[in-house]
Amino acid sequence: MDQAVFHPLHSASCAVVCSRCNLREICLPVGLTQAELDHVDRVLVSHRRPLRQGDSLYRPGASFEAVYAVRTGFFKTTRTANDGREQVIGFHMGGELLGLDGIGTGRHETQAVALEDSQVCVIPFHELERLSQQLPGLQQEFHRVMSREIVLKEGVMLLMGSRQAEARVAAFVLNLTHRLQARGFSASSLVLRMTRQEIGSYLGLTLETVSRTLSKFQAEGLLHVRGRQVRITDAVGLQDVLDGAVP
Amino acid sequence: MDQAVFHPLHSASCAVVCSRCNLREICLPVGLTQAELDHVDRVLVSHRRPLRQGDSLYRPGASFEAVYAVRTGFFKTTRTANDGREQVIGFHMGGELLGLDGIGTGRHETQAVALEDSQVCVIPFHELERLSQQLPGLQQEFHRVMSREIVLKEGVMLLMGSRQAEARVAAFVLNLTHRLQARGFSASSLVLRMTRQEIGSYLGLTLETVSRTLSKFQAEGLLHVRGRQVRITDAVGLQDVLDGAVP
DNA sequence: CGACGACTTGAATTCACTCAAACACTGTGG
DNA sequence: CCACAGTGTTTGAGTGAATTCAAGTCGTCG
């Protein structure tokens, strides 16, 4: 069950230092000096927390205490509408921060679920605020992260405002590959960590429409799908779909 | 009339001080002590900037230097998609912050346009960051504001994920009245500052659908529309539409 | 190997869109 | 004062893209 997970790590505790983390170039401590990094190492990350596939990192209504940096694995965040419908509002991979939604009210508004076995760095928020009073670089980066989160959501709004399913799915696939590429993965080959249902929920489409659209892309030679394996064969063509070019 | 509450103190330029602003209870300096407010007064708000209806506060690509607190008036923010389509991604009224999208990259991603004659307080961002190093209360409130902005956008995503135009329009109207109510305006009577086109763009609908939906609400006795004048006659009924109750 | 969940594909339906026309409101200039 | 243009809004009719409903297939894991 979810609960089991809270245990401090057997293995990890000696390695809970940002300065040696392989994600330090894209995670919160980006741009800090070595001295600042040392400082961060000492006080910022309280511990790591491992999660099994399906575990929840936090749930709606839970008291907000910390933000979380994804270290390994993959997450979705979801929100429940008034009518009970649950919608995916984000997918998150290594180096990204989770839990920012809780700052405003002191309670989490969303649920974060691990889509594969994962590990997060727990960053007590009061610690982060305290430390960022002393380290302008850390404060700045945190502000940048939050701002980018806003811009990202706005981008999704833009996407959902367009009526065309194809543009949405193309944008989704390209966005995923870009983020994976920034983390050193292949630009053309990826494994979807989420179901068609979850993709559809995120994009405001039904799972059938997502499936049909991917099949159509395959028929058009833009990519190759086989279950959750995707190989992109024509990134430019996908970009054209996104840009509304219909040749 | 409603308007009276909002009217710029004609005395404005000598009163560029948060401590005497009628919006201080809902704007950035919320929760600060008198001593802290004094400090804020001295250095935070560089000046006020008036805008005529139709003026842009900033445009996409513009260098990000400051965030802006809406003092009087009403704004929309828009973003342009790859295909050239321009979409409204936010409406903003007194006490709300504009320009947060620029922090992440140092350039504005969006455009902010005054929908009526307006006035904003210009808050140089480096000043805000510097001051919030000294005033934990200010830092906290700024973080809360950004977080709420994220939650707000997520809420819109949720809305646009639902296929039903009626739910979207109901949510839009209710949200607007709630925000106006928090500012001391009537809970039942409001003037839309934006066109049907702009509402539709924001909600991912066409202007015709917005118009039809408002007419339908009127036929059902939920509200009364006459151009941009809206009077809500059955807020509970509107909430039911939003919640998916179809009696 | 069998069962379950995930995925694909087909057919019919529906809701919002597009296109089109007419109406309301506002401000301008004769 | 009214005619007029221009913008914004309402309403109607027909269309279409995505949905819903319904099989059927694939893949994985006990």
List descriptors.
homodimer, 247 residues, alpha+beta, Jelly Rolls, Arc Repressor Mutant, subunit A, 2 domains, 4-stranded antiparallel β-sheet, 38% helix, globular, disordered N terminus, DNA-binding
Structural classification of chain A: alpha+beta
Under CATH, the topology of the largest domain in chain A can be stated as Jelly Rolls
Task: Give me the count of strands of chain A.
Answer: 11
Q: What is the CATH H-level superfamily of the largest domain in chain A?
A: Jelly Rolls
CATH uppermost class of the largest domain in chain A: Mainly Beta
Radius of gyration based on Cα positions of chain A = 19 Å
Order of helices and strands of chain A: HEEEEEEEEHHHEHHEEH
Oligomer: homodimer
Chain pair sharing the greatest interface: A-B, 49 and 49 residues
The overall number of domains of chain A is 2
